[in-house]
């Protein structure tokens, strides 16, 4: 996927790939207590997905999930998203502008 693509240009299967990656990276963030080494390994293996499409998907995912999770889970999920946003902002690989966009929208 190139940087010029956007969410509207993707197939449903491509969108699912991004959603699965987002879920995986948020779980890694939670399970590692925000350990940068753990999260960065996952990001490094998926730099093709750390782009503006992820930045478009993240707020939509968050909005959809927050409406469905129990109230007690919301705080934990928000903390994971904030931690992930901090980590991707500092991630040294991939497109820095895209990483910043993901961080700002997270």
| Largest sheet, strands/sense/barrel | none
- Oligomer state equals single chain
Query: Topology as H/E string?
Result: HHHHH
- The overall pLDDT average reads 93
Q: Work out the radius of gyration.
A: 13 Å
Number of strands: 0
Number of domain units: 1
Q: Per DSSP, what share of the residues sits in E-state strands of 2 or more residues? A: under 5%
Uncertain ranges: none
Termini, distance in Å?
21 Å
Number of helices: 5
Structural class: mainly alpha
Question: Characteristics of this structure?
Answer:
5 helices, 72% helix, 106 residues
What's this model, at a glance?
The protein is mainly α and 106 residues long. It has helices at 12-31, 36-44, 52-68, 71-90, 96-105. Helix 1 (12-31) packs across helix 4 (71-90), helix 3 (52-68) packs parallel to helix 5 (96-105) and helix 4 (71-90) runs antiparallel to helix 5 (96-105).
């Amino acid at each position: 996927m190139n940087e010029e693509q956007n969410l509207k240009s993707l197939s449903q299967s491509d969108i699912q790939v991004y959603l699965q990656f987002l879920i995986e990276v948020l779980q890694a963030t939670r399970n590692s207590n925000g350990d940068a080494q753990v999260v960065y390994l996952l990001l490094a293996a998926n730099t093709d997905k750390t782009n503006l499409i992820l930045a478009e998907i993240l707020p939509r995912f968050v909005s959809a999930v927050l409406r469905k999770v129990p109230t007690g889970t919301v705080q934990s999920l928000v903390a994971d998203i904030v931690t992930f946003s901090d980590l991707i902002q500092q991630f040294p690989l991939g497109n820095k502008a895209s990483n910043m966009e993901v961080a700002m929208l997270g």
